[in-house]
Amino acid sequence: MSRAIQIRVSESVVRTVHVEDGVQSQLEMLPILARDRQAELLAAELEKQGFQRDGAVARRKDADGLEITVDLETATVTVRLGAEADLTESIERRASVGVERRGDAEAALRDDVMRDLDERLNQRTEALRREVTQRLERKLGDLRKELDDAVGRATVAALTEKAASLGHIESVVSDEAGNVAIKVKL
Amino acid sequence: MTTEPDAEELEADDLVETPQVAASEHDLIVMARTLVMGPAAQDDIWALLCASRAAAPKIGPTCAALLQDTLRYAWHALWMRGGARPGASIGAGARAGTTLRGRLWERHAPVPLAFTSASVELLRWLVATPFAAPASTIPTLPARPLAMGDQLLIYLALDAARATPALRVLAAQPFVRAAPLAWLGYANALARRGAAAPSFGSLTEGAGAIVVEALAGELAKRWHAVELGKRAMFEPELLIELGAAQDQTLTDFMAACDAARRRDLALFVIDAAAPLLARNLPPTPAALDPNTTLATRAQARIAAGSLLRTIGRWGEWDQQHRGVRFIDDDYAAAQLLLERFETIGASGLGRAAHWLADLASLVPTTATSDTVAPP
């Protein structure tokens, strides 16, 4: 007759995870001047918004971790948000088995525990990723408006330059809706 | 004075021997008739596909003759599917650049529609396969060279199975995926990550071009329905696969049309998109799975614009057509295409560009529920 014993398995895991989400989009710039000149004007406007120019790209990293990169040549904006976390999980499990099965039972119990630990960490990683996605989604509205404003001002600057190349600018009138009227004497 | 023939003579003259075929051959013929008859068929296609009968490796001469007789009605089936309507097309070969008007058989000289042993292989597989069984147990139908008639039979099989679970099984077969006509008609069913469409050259000349012309109305309706269905899609991955398949199909098909100087064959794209543009129904999905990454959802939205990108290509063609002068060879063809593109026009083109920009923007406009039409 076999004797029953209780086995106990305890495992804990610490895992450093990095999750990231991001989108890429095109800024709508009207082709008014040569591409490189328009890129210069856009870069100047972006620098006023806190971007730092690095060759053909302008970058900004916000305090909340949001990374914005604008490719000035192609007018492509890339927005990324990432997060890093140390996830800790531990599981303790017990089972009653016959003494002669102790070795096999302990190994099987340990496998179960490790599998469950993995699953829990994956779920927490996914939850973190979703949180990052939601934070990014909330920020995109404001960012779009900010970038649209910068593109709008760069477009006005390009139009003004174009007008100046055609003749003498007599007046530049802009309204609250963002419409700009440039009067040129040829 | 005339004499009535006696009863014995009458029976001898009118006696027609009923062709005798094996049971599996009978199923083969019924399947072929059901596919060719299409919506007018009396048989329940799902019941036929669920039944399974082992087919003999060869068919007898009587069965061959009956199959030949059935497939002879393929042209008739195409007329019934819209090919009989009067229309206009651009001539090919010696008549390139000119326009031809009338019904399809008035616009083109008769050409044979070739069926090969591949058609028999397909029918045999359809008869032998129990489509109600788990997909993993269904034998694969390998790819092989296809004549235009074979392609048409594949298209008809997909069409017959479109409302049944058999569509997915059919669309997964390499045999079916090797048919460009299947891609043109059912790119949505054939969509799969990394899938490659075959060359569309066979559909822009000879019998292939006539088949596409005959099916143009059907193709437009189907692409229109799929476009509306995008508005209700929830899984971004599925939308990405669908958009990739549509992009590949339309880009390659339009390039083939262009190379063959048969841009009129791609007019079904205009017919599919025009009502959507007119009714302001962008292909923007109302709600993509919020648990997926923003990157995946953004990719899915961009993929949803496949038909709109084709309208952009049509817009470029339209500009070229406007530059064709009265003295140029292609003047008549250009005028026909200009006239047909008017249903889209500059306003539709602008709207398509706006929708594309919106789909790709950082914060896309979401389609409201009251504008979401059922697929």
What does this 3D model show about the protein?
The complex is a heterodimer of chains A (186) and B (375). Chain A has 186 residues and is α+β, with helices and mostly antiparallel strands. Helix content of chain A is 42%, strand content 39%. Chain A is built from two helices and seven strands; from the N terminus they run E-H-E-E-E-E-H-E-E. In chain A, strands 1-5-4-3-2 form a five-stranded antiparallel β-sheet, sandwiched between helices. Chain A has a two-stranded antiparallel sheet with strand order 6-7. The model of chain A has no long low-confidence stretch (mean pLDDT 91). The model of chain B is unreliable at 368-375 (pLDDT under 50). Chain B contains 18 helices and two strands. The radius of gyration of chain B is 24 Å and the shape is globular. Chain B has helices at 7-14, 23-37, 45-50, 61-71, 74-83, 104-107, 117-128, 148-160, 166-171, 174-177, 180-190, 206-230, 236-259, 267-278, 294-303, 306-322, 331-341, 345-359, and strands spanning 87-90, 99-102. The longest helix of chain B is centred in the middle third of the chain and has 25 residues, at 206-230. Helix content of chain B is 57%, strand content 2%. Chain B has a two-stranded antiparallel ribbon. Chain B is mainly α. The A-B interface holds A 21-26, 28, 77, 79, 129-130, 133, 136-137, 140-141, 143-144, 147 and B 291, 293-295, 298, 357, 360-363.
